[in-house]
Amino acid sequence: MAVKTDPEEKLYERLDRALKKYKGKPGVLIAALQEAQEIFGYLPRKVMIQVANRLTIPLSEVYSVVSFYSLFSTVPTGKHRLEVCLGTACYVQGAEELLRELQDLCGTEPGKSAPESPFSISTTRCVGACGAAPIVKIGEELHGEMTPEKLPSLLEELVKE
Length: 161
Ligand code: FES
Description:
Bound molecules: FE2/S2 (inorganic) cluster
Structural class: alpha+beta
Number of strands: 4
CATH architecture of the largest domain: 3-Layer(aba) Sandwich
Strand content: 5-15%
Strand order of the largest sheet: 2-1-3-4
């Protein structure tokens, strides 16, 4: 008789297979975490523990990398991840106001999961485009000279994709 495997179990099996290639190699934690996040969509505690165990590194090291890099999320994220740069240049140019407007429009906050929303919001440090501040980063794309007024049409475009 075949044993039924639940989907989550399959994801962990996939993670295990993926992590095998990193075991014992130096400097692979970020790549391993990116792959883990691709599999699960985010990095829950249980996944971070598995990464730490399989790579035989301390869990604290995994936590510090996950919390340092804005590309990692510990909560389920929407299809579109919007990152508001809160570096000095962007902050001075109104990034805080942008962030407030985005929260209102998307009905979610940085670091919070909103399963019904196609968007998730996070903040990031300087992304190296200070000349075009304030910046909203969507995936790998930087949207410069952003204003609260431009946000609704930007979100509409994303939903259409
Ligand atoms: S501070 Fe935002 S791009 Fe540099």
